[in-house]
Specification:
Number of helices: 4
Order of helices and strands: HEEEEHEHEEH
Strand order of the largest sheet: 1-2-6-7
Structural class: alpha+beta
Number of strands: 7
Helix content: 25-40%
Largest sheet: 4 strands, mixed
Shape: elongated
């Protein structure tokens, strides 16, 4: 999401973490949640990905005993969005779409180039890249888009013929 500052949502995340639920958040901008508090938020990680694109996918993935649900939504988790606006959160049921959304989340969680990790003190730090293969989710998404476009153009064999106007013909209608 872009921002997380709703007190009720943060309290619910703290309760889930305290109960042992592992929570990985991708919050691009403002995040009022504190990570690493013993007995409160030690099961929560927050990463921010800021690169050439200002995207925040707003994909919500919930898993319980290998059963999972995916939702997409329009809102950031902010009081103004949750209390004073009509926002949409909808389940994704199509298997193909679920796989694509999981791919997006996996790539974002794997990013070690543009991602910064929220620290206990409230600061963000880049990941240690020593000995690791560099992976940028934004670069990967761009490469995938180019490959899909190539495959689509080969698959559909779109051909267009351009015939320039010579200006020598007559036009009707005036």
């Amino acid at each position: 999401m872009n921002s997380l500052c709703d007190r009720d949502i943060i309290a619910a995340l703290y309760r889930a973490s305290a109960a042992g639920v592992k929570i990985d958040l991708i919050v691009r901008g403002i995040c009022c949640l504190k990570t690493g508090i013993k007995g409160v938020s030690e099961n929560i990680t927050v990463r921010s990905i800021v690169g050439n694109f200002l995207e925040h996918s707003r994909i919500f993935y919930f898993e319980n005993d290998e059963n999972y649900e995916i939702y997409c939504g329009s809102a950031d988790w902010m009081p103004r969005n949750l209390e004073r606006r009509v926002e949409i959160l909808f389940p994704v049921d199509d298997h193909r779409l679920k796989e694509e959304l999981l791919h997006i989340l996996d790539c974002q969680l794997k990013d070690n180039v543009k991602a910064s990790i929220l620290q206990v003190e409230g600061t963000y730090e880049k990941q240690d890249k020593r000995g690791r293969k560099l992976f940028s989710c934004q670069d990967a998404f761009c490469e995938e888009a180019v490959e899909r476009a190539k495959a689509l153009s080969q698959e559909t064999q779109i051909t267009r013929t351009f015939i320039p106007e010579t200006g020598h013909g007559s036009r009707s209608g005036g």
